[in-house]
Amino acid sequence: MPPKRGKPKRDIESGEDSDEYRKKRDRNNLAVKRSRVKSKQKTQETMSRVNQLRQENSVLEEKVKVLTQELGFLKELFLAHASNNANQAKFEGIDLEKLLKDSSENTDNKKT
Amino acid sequence: MPPKRGKPKRDIESGEDSDEYRKKRDRNNLAVKRSRVKSKQKTQETMSRVNQLRQENSVLEEKVKVLTQELGFLKELFLAHASNNANQAKFEGIDLEKLLKDSSENTDNKKT
DNA sequence: AGGTATTGCGCAATGA
DNA sequence: CTCATTGCGCAATACC
């Protein structure tokens, strides 16, 4: 809106005299109302979306926390067993972290 | 806004004649402008927040995916070893799922 | 060309 | 009383 028209009552522009002009104004006023309602709805939806995402986020954070703990526990269990008596041979040279990493990367890559 | 004043130029109400009135209007117009700027900023921020949360969400989804895979892999490895030769005795009666569940719940509870 | 949709702006009522 | 917020109408555009 470059020409920042302040409040010229009306002279040239718009319609003609009074008949068509009024109808045009009325129609535009309705359009304005519609537009503003829509705008407010969108704002509301956006705010709702934020709350929704916040919740999803919490759930995911919790999941990560639980999974991380489980994984840690299992790793300990695994390593404890590995450093045990007769299992030395079996677990000798096993890189647990690498195994895990590999297991995660092999989801759908068929290259190599 | 019960009295839906349409567009009466001005008669009673507001100020008095023209001196104080104008100043009052001008000040209000500035306030209106401030208010609207602020409103738009807030809308922008809300939209940015949505995008930000969307990203965080993606990252977390991926983390969950990876951790779940790692965990699955480790469980398989564990169980495979359990159903092995001489380890039957050691793993006999072990409920892996329960162990994992317990390991997750023992974050800070000291009750028995 | 001709309509609707959006947007900046000012006014007035109302909220704080 | 002052400033902030909000419904509303106008006019300029943006959009089709």
UniProtKB/TrEMBL annotation, chains A, B:
SUPFAM superfamilies in the cross-refs: Leucine zipper domain
Primary subcellular site in the record, as a coarse category: nucleus
Transmembrane segments: none
Keywords: DNA-binding, Nucleus, Transcription, Transcription regulation
Keyword Iron-sulfur (UniProt): no
Family stated for the protein in its record: Belongs to the bZIP family. C/EBP subfamily.
Protein name: BZIP domain-containing protein
